[in-house]
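Please check what follows.
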Amino acid sequence: MVNSVMDRTLRSTLGAAQRGLPMRPLFGQILTIYLKDQSQETQQAVLKIIRQLDEEINTNHPDSAFIAGFAPALWGKWVGRDIPISTEVLDHGLHFTDTGGDVLLYIKSPDKKSAAEIVSTFIQQLEPLKDDIQSLALGKRPDGRVMGGRYVDHISNPNDPISLAEDILIDSEGIDHGASFAFTQKFVFDWPDLNSQSGDALDAVIGRRPNGEIISQQASKAVNAHIHRAHTLDSNRDQRKLLRQALPYDESNGHASREEGIMFVALCNEQDRFEKILQSMLGDRPERPVDRLMDFVQGQGGSYWYVPSARELEVSGVRPGDDTYEDPHWKVRSNNGYMYYNTQDYMHQMAEGYYVAGDQPSVRVLSLLSRTFNHWRDGWMKGEHFPLLPHLKDLLPLVKKDKVPESILERKGLANFVTLADLLSSPDSEIAQHTGLVRVAAGELIVGAIPDFTLGRGKEVVPYLNEEETMAAWLKCQLNEWSAMGHIVPNFQTLVDYGLAGLIDDFDRRAAEAAKEESGAEKASFYISASDSFKGVQAYLTNWAEIARRAHDHTTDRADKENMADVKDRLQRLVSNRPASFQDAVQLIFSFHAALHLVGELTAFGRLDQILWPFLEKDLKQGTITLDRAQEIIDCLWIKIGENAFVNRAFIYDYRSYGTSSINGLGGNFPQGGGINQWVQQVTVGGYKATDSSVPEGGANPVTLLCLKAARRIPVNAPSLSLRVYSGMPKEYLDEAAASILAGGAHPVLYNDDKLCEGLFRSGEAITRAWSRDYAADGCFEPMMTGASEFTFGNVEPMAALEQALNQGSTYGAAGSVHLRGLKQTFRSPIASQIKTFAQLQEVFLQQLAWLINRSYSVILNAYGNYEGICPSPMLSGLLDGCVESGRDLTAGGAKFHMVAPLCIGVANTIDSLYAIKKLVFDAESARVTLPELTRCLICDWGYNMIEPFQDKSLGPASAAANAVRYQELREVALALPKWASGDGDDEVKELGKWFIDNMVQMCIDAIRKPSMALKPLLDRIYDKYGPDFEFVVTPGVGTFEGFVGDGLTCGASADGRRSGMPIASDMSPVPAPQDLPPAPVHRNIYQAMASYKGDAVEIGISNAAPVDMNIPEDFPLDRLQEFVAAFAEGEVGGNLITLTCADLDTYERASEDPEKYNLLRIRMGGWTEFYPTAFPDYQEQQKRRQYFEA
């Protein structure tokens, strides 16, 4: 091994195993020996032969090895130790046969000749001892394939020393440390039946394609594939592995292409694991096994074996690093040294110490990651979903109530309490057990579990409305109990400052005072609901203390026992006390965060480094922690946040209802497919300190660096890390950020503080300098004042405004025989033939855009306050500045700041389309078409949909074809034009972009600050209700999030060359290549491209952030990337937010073909990081067509 720490940690277990155990077999012989007697003399003779065999191999055959196993009862008798095993399933004898035996010798060698030579050195010595020896010569083809050369084998084996030690080798303080159990079975293939199957049918039997690609295990189609049936979970819902070392034998009827069968050999550290797997393969009726592979194979002999440790046998042990192997199937990774394509390769390289940066995670962290990866892998095998939760009226005994309270607030508090105290965290709750919410590993430093609730899939909550209330809420605004969005930043600083008990005491005191007020009933209900919710968090901690106690009692490892005892004590303290240490603070923050997600409030973490640094600084001064230990704690936090992930979209279960995931007070259907793994778990680090000083003070600290290192080294999709950079930021943080980006997680997301802080400062009169410097990402990318803000937004579609400007106020995506010129949206502006100049078109376009901006605000303002009385958020409100002070829930306007964001989508497409129209229609040097003809061209989707009444079918197909060809030729011209923000160096398109963005931003601000007579009454109603100090903080933004596919569906063809209904550019990124053309991205200069984002409107005016999502190649030099990150921090390049996804087009192509081999490939999905193989094809194709940028 390269890393000495790894070596010391693992050597005790790995080195205790027989040297031959982990060796990948290519050829060999397996001997099952039946002894004449079981006397001590025979024991000594057998052991002597084995030790001589060990010496012979080490001396003369160093590339070979062996495993020696014994019948468990025999070895137990010889050593005076009971070795109990279970044989119930094996004894069924229908498809497996137990032929017993006393000694097993498995010789492994690189070729047949070596195996035969090795056997010849000891076979004669066995003659006086044996009653019988059954010997079988084994060997693979050179390509390593089995079943007639069709399938690769062994690729699901443990691929790293940590998994090998934990799943295969016994870990004890006795002499059996490093021992194992084995199962052997000689299977014969039924070749007539196999030959009768098609290739696809055989693939479905196995569950993999010939090159190892996994087949999605859809329950209705392939639930009984072999790899599915062999995949079982233990009581902790962990999938514990086997080390499979099977080899083919003989030829069937002399055919070289047909092996007679396969000698199955597998090892693990728990013998009953074999029984559970065999039971899963057989099902409830052994005569009709559910594993489809059993239809084509028959077991003829084998048994269970005990494989003693090297110390027990006094033979050579494993040499860590030299004798632990990586399967070639998984050995694919980026050449940049930071980016890993799959979990198997990652685990092997990290555990062996081959990581290029040299600071791989600790063995503890890698062990926990291995378990996490196994949980992800479960998603390929089975699709389990969260059950519906009971109604509050059916849970009254658990909340000690006789009836459901009248107050909706108090009902929500009780629903939160019972969710946290019982349903989703009690160690005895069937729901919690079934959904993995009480799963724990004894090595965890931070415990708890996030439910599998995401923006894309939805969530489950305890309902509390009655039928009439439910109907009324639906009719009013399509909201329900599932509508709490979260998606804002709680004030975890308040949590660690006061602790749960302190906050509950404050709520109770305020509730008592409010109850005395003449009109204080609603205020009292708010405090009661907050108190009940926080008491639920206390119960959650108490439950997890009990879970830790049980884990302590179950584990046999001394270090794990000490760790679980420490975890239990910590959780019990945090029920009543404030956190006293760094680890205390991390645990309390994560526990409350998990609790918020459990009750359906999907929220971010906020400025984690600013909260945690005082704790770490104190601990470091007191000598109670080291930075290495702190890194391990943060790494464990990263794993807890990211341990849930969906890797197989075939099993995606849709929890959403009509009211789920509303963010603007209205339910309905929002894009889902791109948000499958959007957990809303943003961590924000870096940035200026929250001061009012004229000169800002940098806030990056050692915890910032710990988080950046975790993001680089822990390949999860959540949390999504946001790094606030600023002028003068120390180089070590920027360099670490660059290395993390090369690791391929599309984070950290880079925010420029000098621009965004100024933008936020200007966004509202109540925003002080200190507050503008205290922002964090809300769960996607939108910056908001940490722990003090509510947030609502509405989309504005400039592309629709341009369609309407060309088409008399109608969008033409739906034009045709049903809607004629299209869907009528706004006023009838002049027909295309009356628009004589580009300036006139610009004027009409801005008029149309103004209508859409006002419509967006109208929807937001009319819906403001809808959540109140339907789906309040008392638990989240308890950690929001303003809510507790005012006694109002955040849904009742209680938060300190009320952020509203008109989010413009399709900005780059709009700019490119305006430019194309100018060049194709109005520029004398390049004009190719009239505006009416271009409009018809776009309505007919560039000639790909020649529709009535714009193409008269009575004129015949020749006429349609001629016009279609002309339109398609015109499209080629449009596609060849310079594109905005692509580094083309075209000043004209850049200036046009500036004109549009300047106007767009100012219009978004003026619509609220200088409202029209149409909007003013809506604003006045809100101001009258919430008081004279109420203010909307207006933060214009540009954000498609994951909606760049869905948002494009309603957009007709655009003049930039985009086809109707096809995806638009993500966020404020450059336009990708058209979806209907092959991906062939051009590599452009990143500095030239970012020059398009220079200017106050983009950098300061778009204060809700203007994300630029860029692809960079995997070989982007680290030093140049560090230079670019530094230039962005200094404000030398344009823009206020940038994301960089590192992966090559070829990598994407290969990942589409073999998703399991590229299961760590991640991409930026507008507002978060998604696993590329999980993304639906439309999203994958858009990602492949994004432009690439280099320095």
